[in-house]
TrEMBL record:
Gene3D superfamilies: 3.30.230.10, GHMP kinase, C-terminal domain. Its EC number is 2.7.1.148. ATP binds at residues 99-109. Residues 69-148 form the GHMP kinase N-terminal domain. This is 4-diphosphocytidyl-2-C-methyl-D-erythritol kinase. Pathway: Isoprenoid biosynthesis; isopentenyl diphosphate biosynthesis via DXP pathway; isopentenyl diphosphate from 1-deoxy-D-xylulose 5-phosphate: step 3/6. It is an enzyme of class 2 (transferase). Catalyzes the phosphorylation of the position 2 hydroxy group of 4-diphosphocytidyl-2C-methyl-D-erythritol. The keyword Zinc-finger does not apply. It catalyses: 4-CDP-2-C-methyl-D-erythritol + ATP = 4-CDP-2-C-methyl-D-erythritol 2-phosphate + ADP + H(+).
Length: 293
C-alpha cells in the first residue's frame, strides 16, 4: 500500500425529494433525484497498529472522534464483515469541509468514503456493489454516497438507479449555520402520502430538459424545515432571484439551500451576492459530478 491513501467525500444534493409513504418502522419511502457536487470532505489513512481518527477543517470542531463517528462506524462494520480483508489498524484523518447536519450528507459521504477506501485496500477485490448492504446499515444516504454520481433513489434510499446521462451544471450551496436533525424534520412532516416523481426525460442531456422536469417536482421536507428554520425560506427567495438560477431549493432535510446554474460564472456571482447579504453563512460553489463518474 502507498504510505497514505485518500478518498474524497462529495456533498450530496437532493434536487427533488418526494415522500411517498410512512412505513410501519417509522421510516419513510422516498423518491429522490440525487446528485453530487465537487465540494468534499477529505479522508486520509495510513496503516497503523490500531484504529484512530483525527478531525480537522472548517467544521472539524462540530464533531467528536468518538466510536459513533460515521467514519469509525464504517470501519467497524467493514471489519466485522471481512475481518481477514481489513488492515489491523488505520490512522485516519478527516478534513471536515462540509457543514454538519446540513442536508448534504456529509457524514454519509464520510462513511461511504471509508468503505470505498477499505475496499481499495483489500488484497481481494471487493466491488462497490458488495458494499451496498453494509452502507444501508450505516444510514439511508450511505448507499447513494457510495456511488457519488447522478441517480434516482427509492425505498428509504437503498434502491438506486444511476443515470446514464446528466447535463453539466453548477451549484451554489448556502447553509445558514443552523444544524437540523433529519429525524426532527420527518417527525414534523404532515403530508406523508405525496405523489411520486414524474418520469425523467431519457436521455437527460440538456439543462433545459432538467429545468422543466424540476419545475414539476418539490422537496416535501422543505415546508416543515422552513417552519423550524425560517432563514431557509429567505435564502431560497434570494437565490431564486439571482441571474441564471434554474432552481433554488433546500437539499435533504436542510438547512442547506442550493441554486442550480448552467454556467460557472453565474454560480460564482450568486455566491458573491449571498455572501454580501449574509457574511456569516457558509457559501460554496462547485460543478456537479457527472454520470461518467
Ligand atoms: C433526508 C435525507 C434525503 O437524502 O437526507 P439528509 O437530510 O439526512 O441529508 C436522507 O433520506 C436521510 O438519510 P440519513 O441522514 O442517512 O438518514 P438516517 O441516519 O438513516 O436516518 C435518520 C432519521 O431520519 C428518518 N428517516 C430517514 C430516512 C428515511 N427514508 N425516512 C426517515 O424517516 C428516521 O427517523 C431516521 O431515524
Ligand atoms: N463524520 C461525520 N460527519 C458528519 N456528521 C457525522 C459524522 N459522524 C457522525 N455524524 C453525525 O451524523 C449526523 C448527520 O450528519 P450529516 O451527515 O452531516 O447530516 P445530514 O444527513 O443532514 O446531511 C450529525 O448529527 C452528526 O453528529
Amino acid at each position: 500500500m502507498a504510505d497514505i491513501v485518500t478518498q474524497a467525500a462529495p456533498a450530496k444534493i437532493n434536487l427533488a425529494l418526494h415522500v411517498t409513504r410512512r412505513r410501519e418502522d417509522g421510516y419513510h419511502d422516498l423518491e429522490s433525484l440525487i446528485v453530487f457536487a465537487d465540494l468534499c470532505d477529505e479522508l486520509e489513512a495510513s496503516l497503523a497498529g490500531s484504529d484512530s481518527l483525527i478531525i480537522s477543517g472548517p467544521f472539524g470542531g462540530k464533531l467528536n472522534a468518538e466510536p459513533n463517528n460515521l467514519v469509525l462506524r464504517a470501519v467497524s462494520a467493514f471489519r466485522a464483515r471481512w475481518p481477514e480483508l481489513a488492515p489491523r489498524g488505520l490512522a485516519l484523518s478527516l478534513t471536515k469541509n462540509l457543514p454538519v447536519a446540513a442536508g448534504i450528507g456529509g457524514g454519509s459521504a464520510d462513511a461511504a468514503a471509508a468503505l470505498r477506501m477499505l475496499a481499495g485496500l483489500s488484497p481481494v477485490p471487493i466491488a462497490v456493489s458488495d458494499l451496498s448492504d453494509l452502507a444501508a446499515g450505516l444510514g439511508a444516504d450511505v448507499p447513494a454516497c457510495l456511488l457519488s454520481r447522478p441517480l434516482l433513489a427509492r425505498g428509504v434510499g437503498e434502491i438506486l438507479s444511476p443515470l446514464q446521462h446528466f447535463p453539466g451544471l453548477f451549484v451554489t450551496l448556502v447553509n445558514p449555520g443552523v444544524a437540523v436533525a433529519t429525524a426532527d424534520i420527518f417527525r414534523r412532516l404532515r403530508a406523508h402520502d405525496n405523489y411520486p416523481l414524474p418520469a425523467l426525460p431519457d436521455p437527460l442531456t440538456r439543462p433545459a430538459q432538467l429545468g422543466l422536469w424540476l419545475a414539476e417536482t418539490r422537496n416535501d421536507l422543505e415546508p416543515p424545515a422552513i417552519k423550524l428554520v425560517p432563514e431557509i425560506g429567505i435564502v431560497i427567495e434570494e437565490m431564486a432571484q439571482t441571474a441564471g438560477c434554474i432552481l433554488a431549493r433546500m437539499s435533504g432535510s436542510g438547512a442547506t439551500v442550493f441554486g442550480l446554474f448552467g454556467a460557472e460564472g453565474q454560480a460564482h456571482d450568486a455566491a458573491a451576492q449571498i455572501r454580501r447579504l449574509h457574511p456569516d453563512y457558509w457559501v460554496g460553489t462547485a460543478p456537479l459530478l457527472g454520470a461518467g463518474n
